[in-house]
Write the structure tokens for this entry.
Amino acid sequence: MPLDPDKIAVVIPSYKVRNHILGVLQQMPPEVTKVFVVDDCCPEQSGSFVRKNCDDSRVVVIRHEANQGVGGAVMSGYRAAIADGMDIIVKIDGDGQMDPALIADFVAPIASGEADYTKGNRFFDLEGVRSMPKMRLFGNAALSFMTKFSSGYWDVFDPTNGYTAIHRDAAEHLPFDKISRRYFFETDVLFRLNTLRAVVVDIPMQSKYGDEVSNLKISKIAGEFFLKHVRNFIKRVFYNYYLRDMSVASLELPLGVVFSLFGLAYGVIHWGSSLRSDTVTPAGTVMLSALPILVGVQLILAFIGHDVASTPSRPFQRRHRKNKHEATREDH
């Protein structure tokens, strides 16, 4: 579908991408109105480099006096785009891995009202997956699995993919000061979007791997990511199943955890006692341990089934426009 040139902005965090940033800007499609290059206190002075060597009138350079991480850079770009009245904000990296020609694919579901947020997924094309470094492939698969639990978006994959687009209404309601500033940024945004009940759609894409160097090392952030995923999962469950609403699933999860832990603890204690006394564990003791575990697992699986079925399906932008329209009508 044709894009409205008056409503689309692109945000490009710029940190150690001096060798690639001009090439990315040169490929920017004409439908884009504004391009915000956020120099995140880059040691290569990439912001000044862009100002000096790029004559595209759409490009605006924002400079951070202190490094704020990719999340902080994107939030600065979001704020600037919202202040300029942009309706759809696309974020791509400045290292040349993301093709600007795909911007139309990311914008289309949002412009048509089918989604609030779109993100890239490099796992649709099997041939493209084969070209991905094996460590990165394994790390992304593990992170994707954890993200499904913590964010509640069970139908999305490739959570660390930085090629994204968001509708202005959803962006305005993000708690900019609370979102993770570093590499957990993209995953944290998904969690925040779920609390808004925003619709997220994956867009198939391929990444290009050249001489750029990734600053993201899966082995170094695995532990940190795991703890943050657990934190976000607990928050999301509390918000969606106890604070905003109560359902059968609100009982299934705590009961499932209690039954499972009881059965496990009961079995360990009695089996340990049997080992120390060199006696056979009675069948009744085995059943008293196994039954709660089986019931607990069934309850947890039932909760997961309910959670999968409750993935947001009605775009936030439609609900937001309806609420604004009703409020305006009441004022008159």
